[in-house]
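Help!! Second protein's tokens look totally different from the first
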Amino acid sequence: MHRTRLEIRTSAFEGIVFGVRVSTEKLSKYLAVVIGSEIDFFVRNGSRTGHANIAEAVALTGVTYDDTTRTMYLSDLRNNVSIFSNDLTEKNFTSTPLLKKENGMHIMGIVFDTSSRTLFWVDTLKEIIGKMEVPLNDEPSNPIILHNLTGNSPCGIALDVCNSFIYWANSNTTNPSIERSNLDGSDRTIVVKENLYEPLAVAIDHAQQKLYWIDDVEGIHFKIERSNLDGSERELLVLNKHQQPIYLAVDNESVYWSDWVHRAVWSMPKNVKVGDYPTKFKSYYESKKDANPAGIVTRDNVGKIDCAAVFSMLEKRRNLSEPVSRPSAETFNNLTTSTEESDLTTESSKNCLNNGHLNKTDGTCRCKPGFIGPFCEISICHNYCLHGKCIINQRGLPECECTDTFSGTRCEKDVCDDYCLFDGQCSVQNGRPFCSCKYSKGTRCEELNDIAQICTNYCASNRSESPNISVVLCRCTDSNQTAERLTFNDNFQSDILLPIFAALTATFLLVIAGLSYYVNKLRRRPRIKRHYVVSKGVMPLTSRPQMPDNQCEITIENCCNMNICETPCFEPKLRTGMPTCNSTKKEEKNSLLDNMEGNLC
């Protein structure tokens, strides 16, 4: 175990920051955000009340809380330990490793079920949902795979405490969905399937029994939606742009999400009213430039939840929101509505989105054309037209006005794809493809024109039509009916091509001349001859007088450059310097005389 220092920024010792036993009312005001190796604790007004620096952490992602033991579980992407826990009951709390990191492990989110003492997590790279038991007085169990989600790109994870369900988001854009199952993995069901692009995070609101999720819509927009836990009564809460939301959390009043574009945490009231917009709850743009805010956990949603009270409240609201038939005049005076019931009805009234009209009689929304759903939250035009503009026809159904060359019910087909042949230009006229042919004819430009006519048209250009073209040469013949057109640009030819060509040619000739000179020089090495006049006992003569009978002249050549030596030869010392004195010459002569076979004289 490692000891971790907890830095205290205020004198408050309340809430989940240090695990001090305080009232539930005070505890419910806290939420925690992990970023880098740190945890920040806030109240709902955005004031930070605590800060923890986890020495063992590197890049924290998921976070969850066990209210029974006051323990916080954290996941780390870059640490050798992927999941560890921290005891919050002391200032200097301890970090306990729970799951060692393996190759290809990338845990994005974790949740903890207090009743079964089970920790669940979603691994994005391995594409699994794993779980392990964390008993109170025993060692954690070995991790096991709850769901193998190969090809689904699982991302977010959430826990429904009251109904014992686990939810997760499949972010594969080709088959996006939100699923759930029992905690043991059974009864796996798709909850939301339609009008999704890339769901990234899910959260459960236990107080109102609602499912929340983030959908990163194609392009620059994103959505935050909610529905009943079974996917019914779908509502659109936030439709915004220029953000990259990753993690999601809810409490009794608001929705929170972390954004990696602005490095901030945003919030939005759960019960949206006209004029409500997302607000920046906490910005890390200047203070944490090397890390992004990640997991968020709120105390209301992970503490001790009274599920019986939640179910009782929901049942009462359902009874009050049921449509009531209009009473007769005789019984009207006998019906009374209590103030409490009236307030509850008003509280549970639906907020109609997209300029929908609320019918105060039965509490339903009357949607404008193009929107459906209990709260008019679903646009039937959303992602309907692939390449065009969506409009609502007189029957209230979506229709597409296609752009460019696309057609089809949803503008999904490009009618000009490989339609016009021989470089014909395709366009759409009256909903059908039309070809503008160049050198052919026919509906699809499939019939080539007479080549002689093509030649005549092709060679009709002159300098007045193309001032940058200096030469236009065409040759059209009847025999083969071919055309040639040669064009050169004066400036390009005279300023660039000719100097380059001349320089290359001169360089090539110089190289050839140099090589020829050195080859001839090596082949024609000079013949070396030496003349000596010798006689017995007489000094050599330096001239050539009439030789007496006892004298003779010897001519000696260097035979190294000849195939046959016609005269006696010697091997000159080519690698040594020239003789510098007469003694050297005498040595050469004496050596020559000693090696001769007999006396030539």
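Here's the second one for comparison:
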Amino acid sequence: MPLMAATINFDEALAELEQLQHTDMQSAITKLHELEADFEHMTRFQQGRLLVFKGTSFIYAGQYQEALETLIQSENLVQNSDYLFSAYSYEATAYIALRNFKNAFMVMSKSLALINRIESIDIKRASYLRLASLYSAMSVTDEVGTYASKALSLASAHDVKDICTAKLYLSVYQLELEAYDKAFDAFQSTRLFCEANGYPLISFIALKGMGESKLRLQEYSTSVTLLLSALKGYESFNFQLEINSTHALLAETYLALKSYAKTTEHAQYVANLPDGTSYTALKHAVFKVLAEQSAENAQFEQAYEYSKKEQYYNQLMFDEAKMKTLAYQAAKFNADEQSREINLLNKERELYVAQQTVKEREYTNMLMFVTILVGGLFFLGILLAVGQMQKRKFMRMARMDALTGILNRGAGQELGENLFVQATARGGDFCVILFDLDFFKRINDSFGHGTGDWALKKVVDSLKSHIRNGDVFARIGGEEFAILLPYADEDKGMEVAEQCRARIEAIDTQHSGHKFVITASFGVSGLMADDLSLDPLFHRADMALYAAKANGRNAVVRYSDILKCDKQATDLRRHIASPSV
């Protein structure tokens, strides 16, 4: 065995492995296993390179904790080399997948610090591409375009792989900006280039991007064809994360085509994945699809159950987005703080030199000391004030819905529970109103998400002045809102809901640049004798909301009114008696 190992040129073998990871993953894994058998015969640096490639293969397979452990082990072996950047950047990828955003930004900062030390244009270009990838995963859209453009500007005609990757991230950048026509053209150009130059995995990623662009443009038949081709390609690479994502997009596309059996097949594939942070967004998407499909098929109890799961994953996504924002802001704040500390240290060093050279000028030195001391205290005071302002800002961001300016789901429910306890302790009534904008998806699909956002803000602005100061107004989902009325009975809730319904219907939409009608369906539920928390009121109001939608929408329905209808009463009793409720 030692003689055989001695005949292997490990540098050439590792270079071949690096190429295979971009062209033929199965062959790359086979090659990786072959080289692992000779691990002890390699130099420390060669062992480090091999561990970087092994960590990368774990990421492709979705084994992020194993990837992290392997990459951290590689750091000591590739010290003071350009491969240390690769180790850090892939570690950041694993941390992002594990939703450890604080550590992700920490190792990304280490990567950025290494870029200035990199003299090789080739490695600097590859470094920019890794940063574009990481910022894409962190949803920092502007940085994706910035670093992908930097990488492309450093590429010459023979840098085919890096050109291919840079074009891909510029395509992703257009998709994130919701410029879907431009995104499709960019992905198509990327696919043709990468396929012609022997990079099939990136070609399949671009193919999926083309399919998603067509989905957003509502060209569903074309989207299905593209996504199915991408799925087949991903399966050949065993790229599990992208396989899962493509199934979710196919479920959404088949729903638009009314192909319910296919919708269920692809949605259930994702729904059956184990719960984990890597699948939160995908599960939110497929449970939304299943809820809409059930509602279209008049399976309202099933739609309600799927909707609850959708809201659960929606809250997880909101929490994750908040964590990303806070981690990103904290990283920027820490970088600024480090810069200020360096400046302060430089000033202190300059002061020390000046004091040594002009000792005889005691009075002047004393005056300088006092001046700098006062300035330092003033600077510290400003820093503390800015820190407090940032803290208050982050706390406010955590409670408020960024689009509409009202309470978010978590803050609204927390405040509502407190008011509920106060009201019931004093023998007062309590009422919950839930309402949902009718056919809101049509507004987004017909006029764009900007018009949809305008409609949401306009609805909130129209109702704010009509809601009492002691009431709670919160956005609890995409187009779903809640109004909580302490010390108000169900009749008062019906009155408020009807007034709100009328005000929404009266909104003049011409200022949005389009002409359309906004309506909403309302569900109302009052306090019952055995209610111990808000959950039963929310549940009954939600059932009333479903009934309002089933009865034609743009209506207000109280829960007690539903019970007057024999069929609906039977359905509701069966739903309430179900152990899953």
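Reply: Different proteins will give different token patterns, so don't panic. The radius of gyration is 29 Å.
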